[in-house]
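Hello,

Our lab assistant flagged a job as stuck in the queue for most of the afternoon. It eventually completed. Since we weren't sure the result was trustworthy after the delay, we are filing this so someone can double-check. Below is the sequence as submitted and the structure that was eventually returned. Let us know if re-running is recommended.
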Amino acid sequence: MALLHGPGVREKREFYRQQRIAAAYDQQRFGSPSGAWVNQREIRQVIDLIAGARRVLDLGCGTGRLSRSLAEQGCNVIMLDASDAMLARAVPAVGAPAVLADAFALPFAAASFDAVVALRVVFHFAEVDVLIRSVAPLLRPGGRFVFDTYRWTPRAWFAVGRQSWGGKVFIHAPATIERAADAAGLQVVERRACFLFSPYLYRLLPLTLVHLLDQLEPRVPASARSRVFWALERPEE
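-- returned structure --
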């Protein structure tokens, strides 16, 4: 599959290939106590949704924050990113095999993985259907593609702090994900709505307030929450 050059794709690739962005990534997003809470919550969601998978591809692994936790859970992880600056940080931090490649041109044989995970990746691309088609053949029967999308966020309308955070992100309606999964031969087996607003704002709040928001969240309709974590599964043959 050829590299994708849709809205904002080239800009995002170039942004995350910068050394300064890779160097600041974890501290900028997860360096505060509330940011660390967000990090752990995101990772727990992914680990829960991969349902005990052992051979896992961390697609868009960044600095390796998710790969490290997956390896600690006993997963056989392969890290993949299009940014050599990110991989230069992930490899020594995790020690797992790493591949420099693009999410839309994945260099693996069919049925290579029990799970493919993409944390904070999908909402950077408008063409979610193309990404799901790219991943689907890599899954073994019963294998899962786990990722997260935005239901709403101000960053879909304004590229706030473009030099530090990159360009805008994209909102993907649940119906869009469901259609793309069906077209790729996958089934939506679970989706979890979470966060009352963007985690980019949670990291700025006192941890006590974050805990209060966490307690409030179950009382808010799922349709009003900001993020959705998805698990798409290849049916058993």
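-- support follow-up --
The delay was a queue issue, not a problem with the job. The result is valid. The mean pLDDT is 93. The longest strand covers residues 139-150.
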